[in-house]
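Notes from hallway chat w/ T.B., transcribed later so I don't forget. T.B. wanted the structure written out for a chain they're using in a teaching module, and asked if we could keep both sequence and structure tokens in one place. Agreed to drop them here.
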Amino acid sequence: MRNYFLVNVPMDFGFTECLLAVVVLLLLWYQYLIWNYNFWRSRGIPGPQPVALFGTIKDILLGKDGLGSYSTRIYKEYQNEPLVGIYSRREPVLIVRDPDLIKAILIKDFSNFMNRSLEISDKHDPLMQNLFFLDAKIWRPLRTKLTPVFTSGKIREMFYLLKECGQQLDNYLSKVDGTVVEMRGITSKFTTEVIGMCAFGLEANSFGDEESAFLKMGKRIFQVDLKYFFKFILRQFAPFLYSIFGGWLKDSVLEEFFINLARDTIEYREKNNIMRHDFIDLLRNLRKEPSQIGDIELTDELVAAQLTVFFVGGSETSATTISNCLYEMAMNPEMQEKLRGEIREELERSNGQITYEGLNEMKYLDKCLSETLRKYPPVTIMTRKTMGEYMFPGTGVKVPAGVKVWIPVFAIHRDEKYYPEPKVFDPERFAEEEVRGRDGMTFLPFGEGPRNCIGARFGKIQSKYGIVKILQNYTVEVCDKTDKEYRVNSRAMFLTPLNGIYLKINRSVIM
């Protein structure tokens, strides 16, 4: 019987059978790709129709759109909805539009939203193990211990370092007087020098050497090439694939620079008994007394990661903010003259010196900075992830643990409901009475709640100082090379002008 059976069963498939097997496999794969696409519909959440393989973010994955512009388009399309459901390939993501729900996420129910949504790898992303991305278990004790370096008192102590860097900025500007400059490149030199001094205790030599290691590493972090874009897409939208192929996309040069810099700086200070009471000294002390942060091992990589995020946040976002403000001053000469008038009055009160207290007293400067951050928020979306099952208040919508949430900062800042004629630059939106009448969750340049930007205070004072230092002795004008439409680079990490910020700079000393 057994021999008969073996003889009569075909040992290979014909063309029809092979074709059928392929069709079945393709159908099974297709079902795998779309099986989760009922997630939002079953919960009564509206949103765009997903397509297999891409979800609803096809244009982002193909490099045709950025997170900020995509989320803004969805935000406008569903303008009467508090929640909108999208799909990052197969994964459901919730866009939150309602300020009350945003407040619940960032403040009231923060304990369920302590983690950001990006999954990072110790192996592939050692420099991303920082305060911005770390999960709650490590983030909380580190945040508590590092907060003291960003208090008003500590920033006041470091203000003399900003003034030293400001003098270098002024010397550099004197060499380009009367010419057209790419302003963002100049402000990057200034903020890189500041961060080098304040975080690492080292001169970055940004103004004196175009081959400065700090400048080169800064450009390397933010270079927008195909490798960077592919890495971003995999890490953000295909973490499983990134866990496999991420090693091929590592930037070993960048990692070694910051890890070696952190290690060498700490060793030098230890050997020479140097204490500056700055960011790196706080990390030194935590390494000496690890019990302060529980069972966390503060490795060279973890220390370097904290310094790197300070470098990234302090140099790039502040440089862009300063140059964006100057761009608007050039586009609105009457506002520039009003701001220079306030600078003149403050300098007269302080014997010609820019002081920490003076910067905080300049009301119009504060309005101009806030309006710049409103119109051009460096981080266009904030992300969170549910740590447990969660019912969104007043909606009847319940989601399980692990659901990603996007808060569309750029879209909210450009919402006519909160900011009439949002494309118009109007500092008076931030007059005291205007601010009091507006929901606080509609202005989120630094986030909000316990996990807001730890360096917000430092970033604001650095940006104010840079703006004042330039306008103290110079005026800025638009020119033929100025991109008056301010087109955005959709592939950049932060909100970045595609064509740079070209302005003509002319010496005009206030006093």
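Follow-up for T.B.: The longest strand covers residues 83-88. Might be a good example for the class.
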